[in-house]
Specification:
Layout (H helix, E strand, L loop, with lengths): L8 E2 L4 H8 L6 H17 L3 H9 L5 H21 L5 E2 H24 L3
Parallel strand pairs: 1-2
Helix pairs in contact: 2-5, 4-5
Length: 117
């Protein structure tokens, strides 16, 4: 598999994670830091998306709808990287973006329920 080829698609879930874990001893500090920044950055990227969505639409949205919009946003980000040749469209980035967005939506719903908004 050719790596770091802009405008390509990686459909193998968590391929980079697999490589990182099994080549950990041979990785440089720079590679380790880069991987961790990318991994957690993908999770954090859509974390505030659910709140931003409620602010823009000026209404409360069900968790199911939030999850749908989060998936569409995550897929759109990755697909635009492919279409505009800006990066690699990776399925694990979609999964991590979606996971972070859903975590943020779940925490927002829990907070709203706890204060009865």
């Amino acid at each position: 598999m050719k790596e770091d080829f802009y405008g390509s698609i990686n459909m193998i879930p968590f391929y980079k994670c697999y490589k990182f874990i099994f080549n950990y001893e041979n990785s440089t500090i720079s590679n380790k830091v880069s991987f961790l920044k990318e991994f957690f950055g993908n999770i954090i990227l859509l974390f505030p998306f659910a709140k931003a969505l409620e602010i823009v639409l000026q209404k409360k949205i069900t968790l199911k709808k939030k999850c749908f919009y989060i998936f569409i946003a995550s897929f759109s980000i990755e697909f635009s990287q492919y279409i505009f040749n800006l990066g690699i469209m990776e399925v694990d980035d979609i999964i991590l973006n979606f996971s972070g967005g859903v975590l943020g939506a779940y925490l927002l719903n829990s907070y709203n329920e706890s204060i009865k908004v």
